[in-house]
């Protein structure tokens, strides 16, 4: 692991020289600092875990953050009453039977003038006449709104520019003028200076010349925290989306060498500190949310960031992708790489962000992939005046998307959330490349278009148009001899390949397989996702076409909502003589009561002080399956591991999969 804040170039021996043999060279630009870590472990999985422990384990997001996240730049760019359009979108999701728990509010709510000027922490009142009332309506519907914030301040248009500048909150220019090389301003604000007499560094931004918040100064962090609270969080916003924070406008400017950051007393060129800006921006957002709602678990999303950003932001994504099959293919690989690099809760804009609308087939296939990404969001800025929505193509496509989204929700409460909780303690991934678990299988090492969710649930989705079959490889190890289709229970031998049907109009077109030792907790209750809207906090917001705001029929992902009281556990018996385990994690899904458990090993019954076993904020249950050495007996147990949170579970349904023999007897 090369640890430096500067740009680095690696030459791995690809150059040809007549004077020297092939060589490996590392160049650090702009500075000499470079920490080098060599991580040694017998398994790829252990290397990744050690890396996560080194740079920082991820935060546990609130349960609702793992649900469907709806968004589009379109909804916040309408001329009038964007608030009504967004509420209508939520109702349309639910009237189409698609569960939704989150909405990303794009920066159009801050747009003024020609429509492209983004003045962060301001409100366009034609679009959102009453921001607090809008957040109240969304909160009543059980929707967490993540408001977009950007770190650029337009020097000619932002009403608070002088405050940012005079408080020393902006990246400074070491030149005597505020003008950078790629953007200029003729306004009076170019003469404003910080407390040390320095003008701000100015570069291109959304809608004109902009200066940039310096999060490496106390002044920059302080004013950002204040504005987050007054403009958003104290008005009812419950989540922050930190966007456009790569500081490329500064780094790519012709005069970037004159941009200087405060560095908390150790001034440094902006090029040296730009990569840490997004981490600090996310850190400030996290603190601001805790200031306003100390009992509520924050939910922070960030676009940029360097190693360790997962300590301050719950989720990230791979940036502005295009609407194409090629983009889908690359996104899968990019997300896996991000997860291996410690950013465990990574996703992409499902359906594509930039370009024309995705085809009906591409949209369905992308959703079928997206439901497995740690962060699941549809977000778009279509250039053909369309909006990427689940129902945009009608039937049968809406039903195929509905089935896929509900499948994610079937796994959320017990499987996906438990994996997220384990990640906070061990660094284990939720979405895993095959090599993570099967590094002894040479074929698995070369496969990047199949992946695991947990250790023994494999997904091999469709990545090409018009596919009717999909070639699937079934990885093998000392503890994995068999795989079974999730839908049909068809058996496949590990170490072999098969052409699997992926018929487009069949909900089983999502190829999913369970390997030996799999333990998967799901909810099968029909009330998982209702076709009626509901009111989360008991108020009244009929909105749109909905005539029913009853809460009957919805299992909420929010802490005060209804939770499932039944779990269906799928078990594939481990190989003969082996035992497999899965730690089922439960808490209220949205408070910070679980935090006393941070650092507690998942398989111990108490902490060193003995407090974990009694802590009311969480509960862990060890699900274990073992197969006798002669293969004649399979034993399953559910044992309390630690925690005293009162689980809502009342019944457990156990399904043990075997295609070779049935049970001669069952003992409880």
Account of the 3D structure:
With 668 residues, the chain is α/β, with parallel strands linked by helices. 22% of the residues lie in helices and 22% in strands. The chain is built from 12 helices and 36 strands. It has an 8-stranded parallel beta barrel with strand order 5-6-9-14-17-18-19-21, surrounded by 4 helices. Strands 23-24-25-30-27-28 form a 6-stranded antiparallel β-sheet. The chain has a 3-stranded antiparallel β-sheet with strand order 10-13-12, with no helix packed on it. Strand 12 (203-205) and strand 13 (208-212) form a beta hairpin. Helix 5 (218-231) crosses helix 7. The longest helix is centred in the middle third of the chain and has 30 residues, at 397-426. Residues 526-554 and 597-611 have low confidence and may be disordered.
């Amino acid at each position: 692991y090369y640890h430096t804040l500067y740009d680095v170039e690696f030459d791995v021996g690809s150059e040809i020289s007549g004077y020297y043999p092939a060589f490996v060279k590392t160049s650090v630009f702009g500075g000499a600092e470079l920490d080098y870590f060599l991580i040694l472990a017998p398994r790829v999985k252990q290397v990744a875990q050690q890396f996560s422990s080194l740079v920082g384990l991820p935060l546990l997001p609130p349960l609702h953050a793992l649900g469907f996240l709806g968004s589009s730049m379109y909804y916040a760019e309408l001329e009038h009453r964007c608030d009504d359009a967004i509420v209508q979108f939520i109702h349309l999701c639910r009237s189409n039977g698609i569960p939704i728990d989150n909405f990303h509010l794009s920066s159009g709510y801050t747009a003024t003038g020609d429509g492209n000027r983004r003045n962060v922490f301001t409100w366009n009142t034609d679009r959102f006449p009453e921001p607090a009332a809008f957040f109240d309506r969304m909160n009543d519907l059980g929707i967490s709104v993540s408001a977009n914030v950007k770190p650029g301040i337009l020097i000619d248009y932002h009403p608070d520019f002088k405050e940012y500048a005079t408080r020393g909150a902006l990246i400074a220019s070491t030149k005597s003028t505020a003008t950078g090389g790629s953007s200029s301003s003729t306004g009076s604000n170019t003469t404003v200076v910080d407390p040390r007499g320095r003008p701000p560094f100015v570069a291109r931004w959304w809608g004109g010349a902009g200066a940039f918040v310096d999060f490496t100064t106390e002044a920059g962090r302080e004013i950002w925290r204040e504005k987050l609270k007054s403009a958003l969080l104290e008005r009812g916003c419950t989540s922050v989306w930190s966007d456009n924070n790569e500081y490329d406008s500064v780094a790519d400017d012709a005069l970037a060498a004159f941009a200087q950051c405060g560095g908390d007393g150790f001034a440094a060129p902006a090029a040296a500190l730009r990569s840490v800006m997004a981490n600090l921006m996310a850190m400030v957002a996290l603190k601001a949310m805790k200031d306003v709602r100390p009992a509520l678990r924050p939910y922070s999303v960030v676009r940029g960031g360097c190693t360790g950003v997962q300590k301050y932001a719950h989720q990230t994504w791979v940036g502005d992708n295009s609407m194409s099959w090629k983009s889908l293919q690359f996104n899968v690989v990019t997300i896996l790489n991000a997860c291996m690099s410690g950013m465990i809760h990574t996703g992409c804009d499902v359906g594509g962000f930039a370009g024309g609308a995705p085809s009906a087939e591409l949209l369905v296939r992308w959703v079928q992939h997206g439901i497995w990404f740690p962060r699941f969001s549809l977000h778009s800025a279509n250039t053909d005046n369309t909006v990427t929505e689940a129902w945009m193509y009608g039937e049968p496509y809406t039903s195929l998307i509905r089935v896929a989204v509900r499948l994610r929700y079937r796994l959320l409460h017990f499987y996906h959330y438990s994996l997220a909780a384990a990640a906070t303690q061990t660094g284990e991934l939720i979405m895993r490349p095959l090599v993570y678990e099967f590094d002894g299988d040479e074929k698995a090492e070369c496969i990047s278009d199949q992946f695991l969710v947990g250790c023994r649930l494999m997904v091999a989705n469709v990545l090409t148009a018009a596919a009717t079959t999909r070639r699937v490889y079934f990885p093998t190890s000392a503890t994995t001899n068999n795989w079974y289709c999730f839908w049909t229970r068809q058996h496949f031998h590990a170490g072999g390949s098969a052409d699997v049907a992926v018929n487009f109009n069949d909900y089983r077109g999502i190829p999913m397989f369970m390997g030996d030792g799999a333990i998967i907790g799901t909810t099968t209750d029909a009330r998982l996702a209702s076709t009626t809207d509901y009111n989360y906090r008991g108020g009244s917001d009929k909105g749109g076409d909905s005539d029913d705001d009853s809460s009957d029929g919805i299992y909420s992902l929010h802490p005060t909502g209804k939770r499932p009281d039944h779990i269906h556990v799928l078990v594939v018996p481990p190989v003969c003589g082996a035992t497999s385990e899965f730690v089922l994690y439960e808490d209220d899904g949205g408070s910070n009561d679980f935090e006393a458990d941070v650092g507690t090993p998942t398989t111990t019954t108490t902490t060193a002080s003995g407090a974990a076993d009694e802590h009311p904020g969480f509960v862990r249950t060890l699900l274990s399956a073992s197969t006798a050495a002669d293969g004649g007996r399979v034993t399953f147990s559910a044992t309390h591991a630690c925690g005293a949170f009162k689980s809502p579970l009342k019944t457990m349904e156990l399904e043990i999969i075997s295609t070779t023999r049935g049970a001669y007897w069952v003992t409880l």
